[in-house]
Amino acid sequence: MDIIGKLPIDVIREYILPYIYLSQSKNLCDDIKSFVTTKRYLINSYIYRYNFYHDGVDFLIMDICNYINDDKQSPFSYSNDCMMKYRRLFNLQYRTNRHIYKFVKRIIHTTQPDFSINTQLGILNPKEREKLVQYIQLRF
After folding, report:
1. Taking the domains of the chain in order of start, what are their residue ranges?
2. Which pTM was predicted?
3. Rounded-to-integer distance, Cα 9 and Cα 45, Å
4. Sign of CA dihedral 116, 119, 123, 129
5. Across all residues in the chain, what is the average pLDDT?
6. pLDDT tens track for 49-107
7. HSE-up of residue 45 (Cα within 13 Å, Cβ side)
8. Helix (H) or strand (E) run with residue 85 in it
9. Interior CA angle at 129 toward 60 and 29, to 5°?
């Protein structure tokens, strides 16, 4: 069903079209660029290093998780800073640390690799992504 086609033309012209042409903030555009370039760089680096997509991506997921967890490689405890970063996700803002721990465990071990990478990179801001890239480069 074409919902837009059923709306009166004046409603479309006065209330919908003005929002279509609004530009996004520079901060949002920079954040999106940072996300895309960081993800592309990291995936290509890991594929090149490990010569196989699946193994490289698994290592990448764990390295991002370690970075977010202040370089603590323990799967049983997460730093307060790590918990605060995951609380940036709307659905985790008011959840307990235990709930966040279960969420992190699930996205690292049981979801699609793209979802895990996108979620972990998505909670970082552009400066944190730059530091992540530096952290990864030091590990190579």
Report:
1. 30-139
2. 0.79
3. 50
4. positive
5. 87
6. 887 666 678 889 989 999 999 887 766 678 889 899 999 999 999 999 899 988 988 88
7. 17
8. helix 80-86
9. 125
